[in-house]
Structure prediction request, 1264 residues.
Amino acid sequence: MEELFQTARDIHGLYPHVHIWGWPIATYLFLGGLAAGILLFATLYYLKGKENDMPFTVKIAPIFTFIIIVIGLLLLVYDLHHKLYVWQLFTTFRIESPMSWGAWTLVAVSILSLLWPLSYVDDIEKYLHERGWKKLDFITKFIRDLEHNWLIPRFVILTFRKYRTFFAWILLFLSIILGIYTGILLSAFNAHPLWNNPILGPLFLTSGVSTGSAFVMWLSNNKKERKLMSTIDMALIATELFFIIHMIMGMQAGPEVFKQAAHLFLGGEFTVLFWVVFVGFGLVLPFILEAFELKGFHIPPALPALLVLIGGFIFRVIMVYAGQMSEYPF
Amino acid sequence: MRYAMAIEVNKCVGCGDCVVACQTENNVPMGYSRDWIIELARGEYPNLFMHFESRRCNHCEDTPCVRTCPTGASHVIEGGIVKVTHDECIGCGACIEACPYEARYFHPDGYVDKCTFCDHRVADGLDPACVSVCPTTCMHFGDLDDPDSEISQLIKSRENYTLIPEAGTAPQIYYLK
Amino acid sequence: MNKLNRRDFIKISGTATAGIAMAQPLTGIWETLFPKEKKPLLENEAIKTPTVCEVCFWNCAGWVYKDNEGKIKKVIGNDIDPHSNGRLCPRGTGGLGMYYDEDRLKKPLIRVKGKNGKPEFKEATWDEAFDVIVKNMKAIEKKYGKESMALLFHGKTGPHFEHLFKAWGSQTMGEPAGAQCLITREAGFIATYGAGLASPEPTDVRNTNCLVLIGNHIGENMHNGHVQEVSELIDKGGTIITVDPRFSTMAAHSTKWLPIKPSTDLALLLAWMNVIINEGLYDKDYVAQYTYGFDQLKEHVQKYTPEWAESITTIPAGDIYETARMIGGASPRVIIHPGRHTAWYGDDTQRTRAIAILNAILGSWGREGGFYFPEKVKLPKEAHPPFPKPKWSWKDISREKHKMAIMGITNEIIDHALPEYKGPYKVKGMFIAATNPLQSIPSQDKIKRALDNQDFIVVVDTMPAEITGYADVVLPEATYLERLDHLRTAHHRQPNIALRYPAVKPKWDSKPGWWIAREIGIRLGLKDFYEWEDFEEVLDWQLKQVGSSIEELKKVGVKYFPRKTPMYLKPGEEYWFNTNTGKIELYSTDFAEWGYDPMPVYKDHGDTPPGYLRLIYGRLPMHTFGRTLNNPYLFELQHDPLLWVHPKVARIYGLENGQEVWLKNPKGKVSSFPIKVRITERIRHDSVFMPHGFGNKGRIFVDGKKLEMHRAYGRGILDSEMIYNIEKDPETGGTGMRNNFVTILTENPHNKKDKES
Prediction:
């Protein structure tokens, strides 16, 4: 029998001090991945010259990314324990700290993702009218006001429109960085064997892009666009499934601590949540639904899209909580 | 200069003096501690083994906490002592997650707090508070770069181990059997 | 560089006060939002006051560190102090928590008639409290005589009230440190060597080759100097043999652990003697020169063979032979440690006699690596008229039955305070200073009946312990960091004196013990016994008689004096022991005369009754019984007492780690509170273990408001509550408390009662 007792650890300020990250960080990671996915498609298709074939993807969807990122940043600040010192994040740039370059990336992405839709005001108006959301006209009115009556915003918007291709390249690059960041943020903490995993980064990136495609699929009013996104999403889901199997098999083949980390999903606390809720309802089911839709069955597009989105969110919640439970025994 | 600690587990009685000494020395608020004790027992009555380990920040050679800190609040000073500048810390918790030893915690004022090897005492040529108070003298502090220091000699001459060497952080607290 | 402290800053910036005052709210907000980092107090900035620790009886000397605002920041050992060697234990280090504890007694309290027998008090001034005390002490004097007012005390507070009582004319006094702790040990050593051990025990651990711990838990008790010397012994690679039914801390650090069946120590000690004598491993010259009765002893132990002892102790005979040879081989550098709290099974004087005898035949008494001859500084007493001779005293109520009662037997005093006591030595009033009899003296039911039978009870304490609930007047004493007490003149290798000087003013309306005793004394008309205003005058006078002064002691804390006699016996030296024969009495002539066993005889103490587990209680290194539980630092360190249970027992009762259980004794008494279970291999299957002093139940009401030790209240089980069987040691009247059994309840018994009623 082995016994381990601790003194001066179960005191009220510390215990259970290891579980310091909760839903805000999980949500932050989810929103970061989602924004990265949306922007990746927007910039990619713009640069491929498919601006008009994929109007929602390129012109409309990015308007949401700014809001998504701001919510994510607010959650991040909310989760800080020394909130009033948050500006310290922007006094330095530390390449070794994902938290540092992630914060910088987020700020850069949020600015560019605000300017991107501002320069598509006509298309936004068209989309809103098609959707019948006339009440939201004040948005386009406000943008036009900015563009015509304010000197500096006018200059910025016009410049952006002029050099859109240049900015698209930058934004494409940044969105990939953002996607990678949300993936490797956790794997930077190798004190937690579950996170200390080379597959985790690509998996998060794929999942983020997948939620991005689901988002477009959900809100786009263009049938062709939806169909394309659906196909892409299926490929992404298949990739995710491949990564998941690969990751767990890798952990199983590793030293004891990694086996124990894998056990969280293979009989441990997170087994049902991971396999049934995330893999079952968040990956396999939407994959099947999308496949049926491609075969011509009528499936409401929101259904698989929302499943993917919720699945992606739950995946991050699982990884944040399970990761903190996975520790080196000592 | 490479400061380190050697702790003789064959002498420690797990009294917790190191914890209290640290709390009073460093104004650690009530309900928190920078160091702690574990008791490890193994075997079956009457064939038993048991010892205590006084634990704290390992002031690692390779510091994941400093690496993941987004603001540079976590840093390494002369002698390899890992410290946190409170006014630069945003309280994101990255370093807490990065540390395999659970040696860091949120101070109630928001910043992250941890063992400093009592650098304010070390600067005056004193031992850290925990070392200087230990009734069993089971703790030793010193410079590993000096081959003649007590701690270098102890680590050289006694069978020893560190905690979670597989985490790859090169911890600098050595437990002497 | 010149540093400005805050006070200087205020002085020089006096003219700018208005501006600062206006800026205050703003800076206030700023400081809340951006709290300034609290920097550690640097060694050269600290203001240091000498102190002598009072968190336990070891009385280590140390320094109280204050910052420049006069706030106590830490307490550090005095490097030259032989009790601590500059290293305080966790309790001493956390001693400042006693001073900062917000649950302290803050003002004198006078009992008012409460509803439903609730202990209700009102706050009072010191004068009001003294008036009530003096009036009632005089009433007891008139009705029963001064002797019927008893004093129960502990620690450095005690002597102030001893002086008061002796001056007034009552010597009905006792401290639990006697009958409940080490009286049997002292008696056993006095009967053998003509000298007791006192504190700190003069064991030369640091120079020994072999240390035997039997019923002794160094490391769990933090008898600081001894813990340190054992640590030195481990460094040296010395042999340590630990005899314990529990795999104690020191058992884990020992060369050899003998897991003994509880209550059979004497069998092992006798079997060791058997081997050591029969194999000629004893110190023959020493025995021939210094001891009396070796032949009788040799004959006496013949029947106590290791094979016999195996059947009693469950320790294999082979291990007994092996350890006996290890012990014998180390002679005379060997110590069979006498231990403390030798209140075991009712034949405890004989048990320590066996330890003393074993040491004697190994020749360790008065030898390097054995027991050294300690020396202390003899301070002259301040001049005062002779104490009046009481008509009767503690001697009459203790020595009547127990010839070796060398100090007041608290439980005898309690027996004389019971309503059924009809003899001449009635106790009708109690003055209780710095002890909590409900935890420290068995048994609780008896104590409660005795307390209820008193006309008047005064309690002097720093904390609202259980006993305050029984008081008529409660007096708040200052903590040791705030007060002056007698000089520490404990004996040691080198005679020395240590000073406890107040580092800060007493908090709230608390007062030092000397002041309280003196004020009462003067009101009782004993001015002649208090010809000084401040106790500091007495200490300074005393110190001047030995060539020092309080000023000097304030600077050094501890002062050494030269030894007058050698520390060890010289080879072949003539030495006279203070016994009837002038020799170390292996055969006690006094005991033979008084009808006690002249040599220890093994007695069976029975087995654990079926369905029950033996209750073993002990120490935690970070607590001194109940007195430290509410100390914020030490509470944080350890606040969940655990009941150690063997896995087999856990299976039978279906227990899980951390589960809360209650205990019940064969008399049907159920513990007030639950305790958490720790399933561990470190305990025998027929016993449970828990630390002493938890399960605090003290709660009073002051002007309608609840006052309790809020952190400690209701945590764990108090062993004193469960102890029902007290086996009195015939020689001393000491109370054996280790033959008690309990069973485990997994359902809350108190809920059930509620449902039934």
Notes: Residues 1-22 of chain C have pLDDT under 50 and may be disordered.
